[in-house]
Amino acid sequence: MKYKNYSNKYIIITGASLGLGKALAKRFALEGCNLILLSLPGEGLANYSRMLANEYGVKILHFETDLCKGENIKEFADWVLNQKVQIAGLVNNAGLGGSALFEQTSISLIDTMLLVNVRALTLLTRYFLPALKAQEHSFILNVSSIAAFKPMPFKMVYPASKAFVYSFSVGLGEELKDTGVHVAVMHPGPMNTSEDNEARIGKHGFMGKGAWLTVDDVADIGVSKMLAGDKVIIPGVYNKVIIRLLKFIPRIFAMPMIYKVLSKEVFSESERQSI
Ligand SMILES: NC(=O)c1ccc[n+]([C@@H]2O[C@H](COP(=O)([O-])OP(=O)(O)OC[C@H]3O[C@@H](n4cnc5c(N)ncnc54)[C@H](OP(=O)(O)O)[C@@H]3O)[C@@H](O)[C@H]2O)c1
Fold first, then answer.
1. Keyword Oxidoreductase: yes or no (predicted)?
2. Which ligand 1 atom sits closest to the C-alpha of 147?
């Protein structure tokens, strides 16, 4: 596949006011793409849209809504389709995770994670696919995680939801291979998205820091590789090596290793020694 140029076409990006979504918006603006940005209400998306439009000379539409509700997803899709602009890309970035014991996780957090990570991503893909197919070339870029490749304790439903994103994306990509719609899935490792995240990864010491990338680096790798035609994108050499290794280590050895590393996120040192 040749490096594709989507300048002056509209790209939809969810979760665009924070972290990786914000960096992806900037990276696509740098490519000269017009943007349709979505975030939760009250996250400063209007200001960010104005700043990007001024700095990169692109057109930006923005919409604030909570993707947990099915009616909001439909309202957003109808609003976008009514703009009568050429939609050449959908970036399903919105998603949430964290670390906790499953039994101590609130029902509402489990529900939100499944609704945003799985249902919203799937329904948005379905709503926008006809518009994407109407273009000569277009793409869907779904954001998964390195957590998609092995089951993990202490991560609630997050790894399972990201395994869904991987499976759904690769399957759909195959189904659409004879169309102009390119489907890619990106699997970032830990990124500097929040102080909480930095503190959590800091507990892994050398192991965690080795995998660490900035959101700008991940956005740059993700967009360049997707435009070059890659289907499964794993940013960072360290992350690629870890995933390769985990693939070959049998589950009965891998799971206790993963338990040991991730238990640092939910138990104190003294609690871990008494386990
Ligand atoms: N952080 C990491 O280390 C890491 C590692 C691997 C994969 N990822 C994945 O990368 C993606 C971005 O993560 P991040 O860490 O940059 O995000 P983040 O800073 O934790 O923020 C969560 C993102 O999801 C959006 N979001 C959450 N709940 C939403 C809802 N109910 N409705 C609409 N949007 C909602 C947020 O939108 P707003 O912009 O409105 O706040 C925000 O962009 C996610 O899919 C995440 O799973 C992150």
1. yes
2. 6
How is residue 235 written in tokens? 């940013």
Ligand 1 neighbourhood includes 96 CB (under 6 angstroms): yes
Residues 195-219 pLDDT 10s: 888 887 777 776 677 789 999 999 9
What is the residue extent of each domain of the chain?
10-273
Rounded to whole angstroms, the Cα distance separating 221 from 235 reads 6
What pLDDT sits at residue 2?
Answer: 66
Q: How far is the CA of 216 from the centre of ligand 1 (A)?
A: 14
- Name the residues annotated as catalytic: 158
* pLDDT tens readout for residues 139-163: 999 999 999 999 999 999 999 999 9
Closest Cα to residue 236, out of 225, 227, 247, 246? 225
Question: Which mutation among 119, 168, 193 tests ligand 1's pocket best, with the greatest number of atoms within 8 A of CB?
Answer: 193
Q: How far is the CA of 20 from the centre of ligand 1 (A)?
A: 7
What is the pLDDT averaged over residues 177-187? 98
Both tokens of residue 246? Answer: 């985990």
